[in-house]
Amino acid sequence: MILELKADLSASDIEKLAAKYRADRVKWNGKAILVTDSGHSRIDPADQPSIDRWVDTGSDIQLAHRDWQAAASQLLIGDTPIGGDSHHTLLMAGPCSVESREQALSTAQHLARQGVTVFRAGAYKSRTSPYTFQGLGDEGLDILEEVRQTTGMRIITEVRDATHVAEVIAAADIVQVGAKAMYDHGILAACGEADKPVLIKRHFGATLQEFVQAAEFVLKRGNKQVLLCERGIRTFEKHTRFTIDLTGVAWLKKHVHLPIVVDPSHAMGLSYGVPDLTRAAVAMGVDGVLIEVHPNPADALSDAAQQLSFSDFDELLPSLHAVAKAIGYQLR
Ligand code: PEP
Ligand code: MN
Known about the structure:
Layout: E1 2-5, H1 11-20, E2 23-28, E3 31-36, E4 51-55, E5 74-77, E6 80-83, E7 88-94, H2 101-113, E8 118-120, H3 138-151, E9 154-159, H4 165-171, E10 174-177, H5 185-193, E11 198-201, H6 208-219, E12 226-230, H7 246-255, E13 260-262, H8 264-268, H9 274-283, E14 288-292, H10 310-326, E15 330-331
Parallel strand pairs: 7-8, 7-14, 7-15, 8-9, 9-10, 10-11, 11-12, 12-13, 13-14
Antiparallel strand pairs: 1-3, 1-4, 2-3, 5-6
Helix pairs in contact: 2-3, 5-6, 9-10
């Protein structure tokens, strides 16, 4: 339950209410609010004079729920808005990993020429095997800084674990919390203290409830700049890497006010399916898409099978514009 407190309430009265409802104090649009623990779904009538509005969303999806905030949240990536009711889909693209200066810069320059303003690439990679490329680490972050300086693009890059969370937050315009990191509370807490947009990828074994609850850990610490990214969940299906949950995206659009991004690359795991899935996501009116693009996918050091080549990407782009237009959206 969320309690929106009267503006003239004293600090000690707020303290008493917080203790009574085992609630966290959160600032939301300049107002003091209390978010109670799961056990509370009703307020004591005696407390009504202290409270402007109270909302029971029915579960621990609280601050992200449209019952609490009906309007879609809009946030800024640099000076580019994402989310809200702007009817825009933000294109974010780039290689899975920063592999070298040349690889990152050539990809960024190609994408920038195509109008893409947000460059994706991991420096700290979260890999399933320890015997594969683990990313360039800080050297990769320096290369991403050079991409930003030379192309003017914004950077989304992932944090793998809490050991380098400060470095990634400093280097990124959007901090990506990878699917496997979705349950890392050290990362979520640090992101909650940061003043940067945070894109949380859905763990492949997480229900929608668990996914949005990960976002709640960031929101309740006061960072409202959270994006949710569907990137495929694990099902019984073996022919594709994961199963993209577009039904889940429809559910999120209805019940959650945070911007929604779809990553078709990791869901499919195979480049031939990425164009169709990207078009399907754009057709749903999502706020952003995150696509892997590499100068020479066959030689990529991570996720080689799923990355689009430059020409694949160039071929896809006109159809994305057309699909967006068909539903009254624009790409940016
Ligand atoms: C990635 O974006 O390259 C990545 C590792 O994604 P995920 O965390 O969704 O597997
Ligand atoms: Mn990848």
